Amino acid sequence: MVLPLRVWPDERADLSTPQLAHTIDISIAGGRLGGLRTQLQPGQTVLLQRGQQRAPFRVVWNKELAPNENQAGVEALDLDQNVWGVDLPRAHGSHTGWRTFATPLPAPIPFKQPATPRLARKLNLPVPQGPVVWGVATLLLIVALVLALYQGVFVSVDQAAILPPVPTPPTAADLARMTPKPVEVPLVEEVTTWSATPVARLQVASAPTERMVYPIAPEGNISGEVRLKILIAVTGRIKQIQVLRGQQALVAAAEEAIRVWSYKPLREKGQPAEGEANVIVDFRGSDAVSVEFPGKIPKTR
């Protein structure tokens, strides 16, 4: 789920400047962040804000995709606080609030001292007495507790919590498969751009491949749709933005984010080319937003 965020690299918000980022995957226990301009160190505590909600998170891993473009995995330090602001599926088992617990362990079976075997009496063999039997039972109980602690199971008075597995950072091959690639469709060999410079132009119908940040509405509950057409320079940066439809406040928020987008430089027949893309930004309220890159902008109803 993609949600825009503000990230403070220091958990004390008054000592650092926030940066814009967005989620890629989220869960009750944590999430994966994208669009980070700086690297985060594993074990570092950061502060995330969505809307008016703030919560501390611990960095589990960081992966640099390109200069000023990082992804990071974080885990929540306070499971009782829902900073995402959306309902998520809960794990199997009974739960209280945001904490999820396993089924309570059954009550232990009381120990009974075994009766003296008849065969032992007939053969005159020594029979373990009460202290010996209780000593063996105590030793077995200690071994069981050590094994339970070794396996990561912490038992309380009435319930047991299973620690979730620590997520592993994705490999370079995994990140390459997840990175979107532009769909390049040549329009004509030579056209005139908006700036009246004849260069080759390609129609791009995909998200930026080098850098992308998601727009943030000026108010958390405001909603509406913005339709734009963007011109991509030969360097991959956004050269010009043409507004087709949308409220002024939402248009300004969308343009602020789009101006920092960056595509991989386009080429047509081996020569540098500019690109043209249609963008639909849908502000859905509660600080949620979706972005589409259609080949053609649908007609306004």
Task: Give the helices and strands, then pairings.
Blueprint (H helix, E strand, L loop, with lengths): L3 E5 L10 E8 L3 E7 L8 E6 L2 E14 L2 E8 L18 E2 L2 E2 L17 H5 L7 H21 L2 E3 L4 E3 L9 H7 L5 E3 L4 E2 L5 E2 L1 E4 L18 E10 L5 E8 L2 H11 L7 E3 L2 E14 L4 E4 L9
Parallel strand pairs: 14-18
Antiparallel strand pairs: 1-2, 1-4, 2-3, 3-6, 4-5, 5-6, 7-8, 9-10, 11-14, 12-13, 15-16, 15-18, 17-18, 18-19
Brief characterization of the structure:
By secondary structure, the chain is of the alpha+beta class.
How would you sum up this structure, described in words?
With 301 residues, the chain is an alpha+beta fold. The chain folds into 3 domains: 73 residues; 53 residues, no CATH class; 114 residues, TolA/TonB C-terminal domain (2-Layer Sandwich). The protein contains 4 helices and 19 strands. Strands 11, 14, 15, 16, 17, 18 and 19 form a 7-stranded mixed β-sheet that branches. A hairpin with a 2-residue loop joins strand 5 and strand 6. The chain starts with a strand and ends in a 9-residue tail after the last strand. About 9% of the residues have low confidence.
Q: On the 0-100 scale, what is the average pLDDT?
A: 78
From the alpha-carbon coordinates, what is the Rg to the nearest angstrom?
30 Å
- Which blocks of ≥5 consecutive residues have pLDDT under 50? 92-103, 153-159, 187-193
- Estimate nothing, just give the exact number of structural domains: 3
Largest sheet entry? 7 strands, mixed
Q: Roughly how many Å apart are the termini? A: 29 Å
Residues in helices, as a percent range? 10-25%
- What CATH architecture of the largest domain do you see? 2-Layer Sandwich
Order of helices and strands: EEEEEEEEHHEEHEEEEEEHEEE
Beta-strand portion reads 35-45%
Which shape, going by the Cα principal axes?
elongated
